[in-house]
Design goal:
The chain is an all-alpha fold and about 60 residues long. The protein has one domain. It is built from three helices and no strands. The longest helix has 29 residues. InterPro entries: DUF247_pln (IPR004158). Keywords: Membrane, Transmembrane, Transmembrane helix.
Length: about 60
């Protein structure tokens, strides 16, 4: 069991995740701002898609 715990702790993925959580997500406001940034990015991409869709497929009158 100790070998498994050491293997888990020495994994690059888990060390990277721990550093990320410690350095960048140490307050709730940081987490909220990242979530808000992803939401805004998604909405921007959605607006871009609909703008291009309307250009290439104009509504028929």
């Amino acid at each position: 069991m100790i070998v498994d715990v050491n293997k888990y702790c020495n994994s690059k993925t888990h060390r990277w995740r721990a550093v990320l959580a410690r350095d960048y997500f140490n307050s709730p406001w940081a987490i909220i701002s990242v979530v808000a940034a992803f939401i805004l990015l998604g909405l921007t991409l959605l607006q871009t898609f609909y703008t291009m869709y309307a250009y290439y497929h104009p509504p028929s009158s």
